[in-house]
Amino acid sequence: MNYHQMRNKELREELKKRKLKGYSSLKKIQMIEYLSTGVHPEKNTIDQMDYHQMRIKELREVLKKRGLKGYSSLKKAQMIEYLSTGIHPLKNAQTPSMIAESQIHDPSSGSIGYSPTLFAKTIEKLPVNQIVSGDCLKIMKDFPDGIFDCCITDPPFNMSKKKGLGWAFSSHVTMEEQWDIFASDDYFQFTVDWITEVLRVLKTNGNLFIFGSFHCIFTIGFILQSLLNRRIISQIVWYKPNAQPNITCRMFTESTEFIIWAVNNESKKAKNWTFNYEIMKAMNNNKQMRNMWEIPLTKRSERQHGKHPSQKPVAVVNRLILAGTNEGDLILDPFSGTGTTAVVAEQHNRRWIMIEKQKEYNQIAQNRLDELSDSLFEDGSNDSRQ
After folding, report:
1. Which neighbouring-strand residues pair with 202?
2. Is 100 helix (H, G, I), strand (E, B) or coil?
3. Structure-derived torsion over alpha carbons of residues 336, 380, 302, 74, reported in degrees to the nearest 10
4. Distances from the Cα of 301 to the Cαs of 64, 244, 298, 356, in angstroms?
């Protein structure tokens, strides 16, 4: 049983089932420790050390002193679990943070490539907290139904130009990518296909947040409402006060993007979607959060490992994750780019699976996650609400 994938409520039920007492005030990591050892973490007479009060460096020294190995890449909570149980927390897990299609062997064809047998049809075998490199349409087909609590994604907008004016002379990051160019009919069918797969793997009450510009947002909305019978409960307008200017001078300067928030429309259970109203209110000076968000373009510090032409600011994704998910929820991003969704999910104790076809972006995402892991080691924290 993987306690780290369980929610607080499920952990309490497991503690109750085992007739372990005094857990009502415990934090998640303490409940995991209690279940793993059978010893109450606040009444531990076997080991007087309070691991939760120790710094990362001190935990590593204790692990070294006890002769326990393979702890250099572990997070603080995992090191505490290792010290408490003596069992490596990743011993039975897939340890790579990134899985590439080229590493997967398909026995039926005798060739190297994507294999539909890569992931078993159980959540325990899925690449949780990992980046999968490849085509999301192929990869998602092997995921079981109804496993994700939320999907946050920024799909191709089909706005790149085959010819015309560009910004090559400018410092602005612009969209001139081959993967963003489709014929109109092809783009429509591609959008139907990937949204259909996402809806299949979402839970009945799961949230779906899709970024888009005027180039594609109306197509996405039509597909969701008219073809796939989904309910759009909100459209968020992201206003960019520092948007790049319009070089043609023949139209208004485009300063907004949109985020469609869609949910299931087919059952009573679907109406029980997650919306953390109080958290949003607290983030907005104790006033109701509106659907117009003024947030500047991605900061330079968020692009230090490499640039993506449509990289979303941490601040935007931060609001979506805090609004539409709870701690321990599993988040999907089938077009993960440079990994902003994963970075924010890590900061807020959400589980995630990222899929990205462009290998260069996967490496940038991995570098960002490695940097985040190092920073969490330093301060022992993984909660950075904005």
Report:
1. 148
2. strand
3. -50
4. 35, 18, 8, 22
pLDDT in single tens digits along all 386 residues of the chain? 667 778 888 888 888 887 788 888 888 878 887 787 777 776 643 344 567 778 888 888 888 877 777 777 777 878 887 777 777 776 544 333 566 544 433 333 333 333 444 454 555 678 999 999 999 999 999 999 999 999 999 998 775 444 444 444 444 444 455 544 545 678 899 999 999 999 999 999 999 999 999 989 999 999 999 999 999 999 999 999 988 888 888 989 989 999 999 999 877 778 899 999 999 999 999 999 999 999 998 777 666 655 556 778 999 999 999 999 999 999 999 999 999 999 999 999 999 999 999 888 899 999 888 888 655 544 444 444 44
Residue partners of 54: CB distance under 8 A and separation at least 6: 62
- Give the tokens for residue 267: 């059952």
> How does DSSP assign 79-94, residue by residue?
HHHHHHHSS-TTTTS-
Residue listed under structure tokens 């790579």? 96
| Domains of the chain, start order | 3-85 (no CATH), 98-379 (3.40.50.150)
Residue type, 144: P
- Is the CB of residue 346 less than 8 Å from the CB of residue 162? no
- C-alpha to C-alpha distances, 369 to 64, 217, 316, 324, 364, nearest whole angstrom: 25, 29, 18, 22, 9
* Amino acid identity for residue 186 in this structure: D
Beta bridge partners of 328: none
Q: Which residues contact 39 (CB under 8 A, 6 or more apart)?
A: 33, 45, 46
* Category of 364 on φ-ψ map: left (φ > 0), alpha (ψ -120 to 50) or beta: alpha
- Residues near 197 by Cβ (< 8 Å), separated by ≥ 6? 136, 137, 140, 141, 334
Query: Which residues are within 8 A (CB) of 315 and not within 5 positions of it... i.e. 6 or more apart?
Result: 295, 386
Give the whole-angstrom CA distance, residue 384 versus residue 386. 6
